[in-house]
Design a protein that fits this description.
By secondary structure, the protein is mainly β. The protein has helices at about 105-115, 125, 185-190; strands at about 30-45, 50-55, 70-80, 85-90, 95-100, 145, 150-160, 180, 195. It has a single domain, classed as Immunoglobulin-like (Sandwich). It is built from three helices and nine strands; from the N terminus they run E-E-E-E-E-H-H-E-E-E-H-E.
Length: about 200
């Protein structure tokens, strides 16, 4: 990026407003869809990490997350790895509602690696551990949030403008579409990313 500095002084008439935008409180009952998003790490026979997937699928597979523009969804993000993963959802702002430790994580992870179905692997029976409060500085609408290892993080995702509750002024359904991914560069380069396809 190139900056050109003007030699003549310029009068700045801008002012900080007395009142900033007040974002609405999250309303999980407004969600039109509930999804489970599982974070997987795969290793070699000598236990070296080889790649990371979201919901057990590579990026090249067709989109399975197809939100409707202008709606809200509840996502249960299940981190089955040993790392914090800052999840970033393109075109989505979200509020963290709950962070719950997964009990008997090894048993739940083994089941997920076999059938990749949180409900059939009895997530509700395992997500009963300690709760972790969201820190004060993180307790707002976000577009990136660190998903704790061994925890299920419940988020309310809004696929619309938060301040006006209106849908996007552009066509969110247009190709090539959008993505959600781990925001650690090495991880997204190792396929911890999935397509996000908006529908009308």
């Amino acid at each position: 990026m190139k900056f050109i500095i003007d030699r003549e002084p310029e009068l700045d008439t801008s002012r900080i407003p007395k009142k900033l935008i007040r974002y609405p409180s999250p309303d999980p009952s407004s969600a039109s869809q509930t999804r489970h998003i599982a974070m997987f790490e795969y290793t070699s026979p000598v236990d070296e990490p080889t790649h990371l997937y979201l919901n057990g699928k590579p990026y090249s597979y067709p989109a399975t997350e197809t939100p409707r523009a202008g709606t809200s969804e509840v996502w249960y993000v299940i981190n089955l790895t040993q790392d914090n993963h800052p999840l970033h959802i393109h075109l989505g702002l979200f509020k963290v509602l709950d962070q719950t430790e997964i009990k008997d994580l090894g048993e739940f992870k083994d089941c997920m690696l076999k059938i990749n179905d949180a409900e059939r692997c009895h997530l509700s029976r395992h997500a009963r551990g300690k709760k972790v409060d969201v820190r004060a500085h993180e307790n707002g609408w976000k577009n990136v949030y660190k998903m704790m290892p061994g925890y299920m993080t419940k988020i309310l995702v809004r696929f619309a403008y938060i301040h006006s509750n209106s849908s996007y002024v552009f066509d969110a359904t247009a190709e090539p579409g959008y993505v959600y991914h781990c925001h650690i560069l090495d991880h997204e380069d190792n396929v911890m990313m999935r397509p996000l396809k908006f529908i009308n």
